[in-house]
Amino acid sequence: MKSRVYHATLFALYQLCIVVGILAMPLAMATRQVGYTLPLHRLIESVGEAYDDVRQE
Description:
Blueprint: H1 4-23, H2 25-33, H3 40-56
Helix pairs in contact: 1-3
């Protein structure tokens, strides 16, 4: 069983990734116009899945 500290740390990391994604949105929109997509969605999805796995235990 995972500890509460691990659970809280993973939750904080998930929230931080969401904030970084929101703050990087203007950059992501600019890079998309030139044909490149920033892979921030992969980071948020992987951290979100890890958080969901811990939460379900």
